[in-house]
Design a protein that fits this description.
The complex is a heterodimer of chains A (466) and B (356). Chain A is α/β, with parallel strands linked by helices. Helix content of chain A is 29%, strand content 20%. Chain A has one domain: TIM Barrel. Chain A contains 16 helices and 17 strands. In chain A, helix 7 runs parallel beside helix 8. Chain A is globular and about 65 Å long. In chain B, helix 2 links the parallel strand 3 and strand 4. Chain B folds into two domains: 165 residues, Rossmann fold, CATH 3.40.50.1370; 167 residues, 3-Layer(aba) Sandwich (Rossmann fold). Classes of the chains: A alpha/beta (466), B alpha/beta (356). Chains A and B meet through helix 6, helix 11 and helix 12 of A and helix 4 and helix 6 of B.
Chain lengths: 466, 356
């Protein structure tokens, strides 16, 4: 293939630079060469061309929180299937969490992930290293070693850093390395064996709940420690109104805190565990006047996720936090699982949602009141996450998350109006665990370009590449 | 075993003749009954509950005979699959099935391939493959019978799942109350104890409110689930209590004070207190629990004269109920057990006669 690619006639949306206009994007040698109207004519005759008229062209999405399961859980996902799914979802950079087997707590494992991802070559993979050795929550991992090997932050995600003393030391140590600590905020003494949000739906289903306070207590502790140490703490997957309020107040005080939220916490509530959209029987059958079918309660293990889906009030607070800048980024927490991990009793099922391939459509379709406009949405998937983890300060990544000339040529072409039905059996991801199966979503990725190469095109869209 | 999965249908409805006497079963099942499973009472109408009650009356008559056996479910294979120990529920179901002439296979999870790691869905599909028609299931995890119902063609009866539901217990409780009080509309029923962990309480709340009873829930605040009523269970911010449709949970009242809650009650139902709740730190001591929440003669004096006392068993005498009340004139605890067989016969009969 030639080193040149032109994306012609689309609505170019580059929120990080405040640009929203019809323009061509010219790519040469893996970098953005130029952006502007009528540029395509200047492309060399050998250049590939993507016709993007009527479509939106924006920087490739950056996901700062996902699980690729490789090494160790290749039956759930591999770096190859995971990055293929990411490309289909429009993500060109993904940061993978270290809860693998072995966990990413040594240079060797970091190198394995980087080498494997580079060999697959579909999207950029930036690993996150463990906070504690073996993710046991006891002793610090060799953070400097991990930093040198190329991790972009530290996290024991999946588990919280429960020990406040360890969290303090991690923050102090990581500050010297210029990297954030990313915490899965959960006070374990308050969530013991809880499998969903502690609210009225848990009462209806007879399931053990995790109270919102369990997350908020940990968020408050982390903010206090970030304030004390001056270090950067990044709050993973904020899910409650109280957490949003804590982060908002901390940012106003000038605390070095950033935060992310997942697509599911912006779109779904705990009601998704019990009631299917086809049968919105929040009323019992007798009150809704349906014929008694007794299939009302779904106990949908695909809606089992940690932190759990919360109330409508929490969803609205997360959207509000995203709009007012309290929350910096949307991160998928893509968490693929094998069928048997989910086809079982709710208590026994694994936590997590396979999210790469539905994130965009869900965000465009299911945010309450449609309050998330496209420019904000794209900003929170591009410039927002890049700034949160300062990814553009890494060597070779100058301009990441934007379409600035010289930036890596990571571009996504999307059709915000295109309707499609979620069919998990057609996912590129091995994880078919989504509560959105069968739902019609509006908005789909049409083409993904990574480093100047087209790594995905939507076949049905018959996009004109010449 | 039945080769024809529909064989339970058609034959079930109508009359069951034994020794020349006709049992008064409904001549054919009414059109409003088209239930395949009994998983909870949350979607039962008063009409459906009434049908179960009337059918149980007829079954009670069968049980009163010298040779209590009818051929109604002959050729139907019923499996009891119990993942949790149970004496009365299991015995009651198996007796009910045998009286109706069904073939009964009894599987305890400890003795099956479950111990070899077989998944619930695989176990249920295996039972279906060998020709079972109906599955009666108890499981320690809430929702497990729904999983079985969704992934098989078996008719499923929930014999108790986790903290969630125990519909046949609630039906037999309703039957027992009804046989003493008649229509339960407007009757005050107090359910006292560990509500959070009680499937019996949850199903009773649905069943009782469906037939128009006034239900008051009582227990220590640490054993009271969120979202039912805010007035006395603290603010519990973030439970979504204000977002739910009014009837998404049963419309019950909550009162944490038993002396007050029991005033004028027609029925008092005490729940079993699992002694491990104290170890889990949910209550300070059994002693204090008994002092505050035990159903005893003194408290019962505040209820209606002749108020009925129920308990799903097994009873911790001296904890949730005093021995003199448990064995007193108002206690229906033994009658509940007896009625359990008739009510479960009714449930099996109605399911067998329902749509295949």
């Amino acid at each position: 293939m030639s080193g040149s690619l032109a994306i012609r006639g689309g609505r170019m949306l580059d929120p990080g630079r405040g640009l929203d206009k019809i323009a061509d994007v010219l790519i040469e040698n893996g970098r953005i060469a130029a952006v502007g109207p009528g540029l395509a004519g200047r492309a060399p005759p050998t250049a590939d061309v993507i016709e993007a008229k009527g479509l939106v062209v924006c920087p490739g999405f950056v996901d700062i929180h996902c699980h690729l399961r490789d090494p160790g859980f290749e039956h759930k996902e591999t770096i190859e299937t995971g990055t293929r799914a990411a490309a289909r979802g429009g993500f060109t950079t993904v940061c993978c969490m270290p809860n693998t087997e072995p966990p990413i707590d040594s240079q060797a494992t970091v190198e394995y992930v980087l080498r494997t991802a580079a060999a697959v070559g579909l999207v950029r993979v930036l690993p996150i290293g463990c906070v504690s050795r073996g993710r046991h929550g006891e002793a610090l991992a060799e953070l400097a070693d991990l930093a040198e090997a190329g991790v972009v932050g530290f996290s024991d995600d999946g588990n919280p850093v429960a020990d406040g003393g360890l969290m303090r030391r991690a923050l102090e140590y990581s500050q010297a390395l210029g990297l954030p600590v990313i915490d899965h905020c959960e006070e374990p003494s308050l969530t013991k064996e809880g499998v969903m949000h502690e609210g009225w739906v848990a009462t209806r289903l007879g399931l053990r709940g995790q109270p919102a306070a369990a997350e908020e207590a940990a968020v408050a502790r982390d903010i206090a420690l970030a304030e004390f140490t001056g270090s950067h703490v990044h709050i993973a997957h904020v899910s409650t109104r109280g957490s949003v309020e804590l982060v908002r107040a901390a940012k106003i005080r000038g605390v070095n805190v950033t935060a992310e939220v997942t697509p599911h916490h912006l779109t779904l509530t705990h009601e998704a565990v019990a009631f299917s959209p086809a049968c919105p029987a929040r009323l019992s059958g007798r009150q809704a006047g349906r014929p008694a079918s007794n299939d009302g309660l779904t106990y949908d293990t695909n809606a089992k996720v940690n932190p759990p889906l919360r109330t409508r009030e929490d969803v609205e607070a997360c959207v509000e936090g995203l709009l007012d800048g309290t929350i910096d980024a949307i991160a998928t927490d893509h968490a693929p699982h094998a069928l048997e991990d989910k086809l079982c009793e709710f208590d026994q099922a694994a936590f997590g949602i396979s999210n790469f391939e539905t994130a965009l459509g869900a965000l465009l379709t299911l945010v309450p009141g449609g309050r998330l406009d496209l420019p904000t949405l794209v900003a929170k998937l591009t410039a927002g996450p890049v700034a949160a983890l300062a990814l553009d300060r890494r060597p070779g990544l100058d301009g990441l998350g934007s379409l600035a000339p010289g930036a890596p040529a990571d571009v996504v072409v999307l059709d915000p109006e295109r309707e499609w039905v979620v069919k998990p059996e057609r996912f590129a991801s091995k994880g078919r665990n989504t509560p959105l199966a069968g739902r019609t979503l509006r908005g789909q990725v049409v083409a993904t370009v990574y480093g100047g190469r087209v790594v995905y095109t939507l076949e049905a869209a018959r996009i004109g590449t010449t | 075993m039945s080769n024809d999965p529909r064989s339970g249908a058609g034959r079930g409805a109508g009359t069951a003749v034994e020794e020349g006497r006709t049992v008064r079963l409904p001549p054919s099942l009414p059109s409003f009954w088209h239930r395949r499973h009994v998983l909870d009472l949350d979607d039962f109408s008063a009409e459906e509950i009434g049908l179960v009650m009337e059918t149980a009356d007829a079954m009670k008559e069968v049980l009163g005979r010298q040779i209590a056996r009818v051929p109604t479910l002959r050729g139907t294979t019923i499996v009891t699959l119990f993942y949790e120990a149970s004496t009365r529920t299991r015995t009651s179901f198996e007796l009910a099935a045998r009286v109706l002439g069904a073939d009964v296979i009894s599987i305890a999870a400890t003795s099956s391939s479950v111990q070899k790691g077989e998944s619930l869905v695989d176990t249920v599909l295996t039972l279906q493959a060998v020709g079972a028609d109906m599955l009666i299931m108890r499981h320690r995890y809430s929702g497990a019978p729904y999983l079985a119902a969704r992934h098989s063609r078996l008719k499923v009866v929930n014999g108790g799942d986790g903290w969630h539901a125990h519909p046949t217990q609630a039906l037999l409780d309703l039957y027992t109350m009804r046989s003493h009080l008649g229509d339960l509309r407007g009757r005050k029923v107090v359910i006292v104890g560990d509500i959070t962990h009680s499937r019996v309480a949850r199903s009773n709340m649905w069943g009782l409110t469906a037939v128009g009873a006034r239900v008051v829930i009582c227990g220590p605040p640490t054993l009271m689930p969120v979202g039912l009523d805010g007035a006395q269970t603290g603010a519990r911010r973030g439970t979504g209590r204000h977002e739910r449709d009014e009837l998404a949970l049963p419309p019950v009242e909550v009162d944490l004070n038993l002396d007050r809650a029991i005033e004028g009650a027609d029925v008092v139902m005490a729940l079993r207190l699992q002694l491990e709740r104290q170890q889990a730190g949910l209550i300070p001591s059994i002693r204090e629990y008994a002092r505050l929440y035990q159903v005893n003669a003194e408290r019962l004096a505040r209820a209606q004269p002749g108020a009925l006392v129920l308990h799903p068993g097994p009873v911790n005498e001296g904890v949730e109920i005093s021995p003199e009340v448990a064995h007193g004139a108002h206690s229906l605890i033994e009658e509940q057990v007896t009625n359990g067989v008739a009510v479960r016969m009714a449930v099996l009969y109605l399911l067998a006669g329902g749509q295949p």
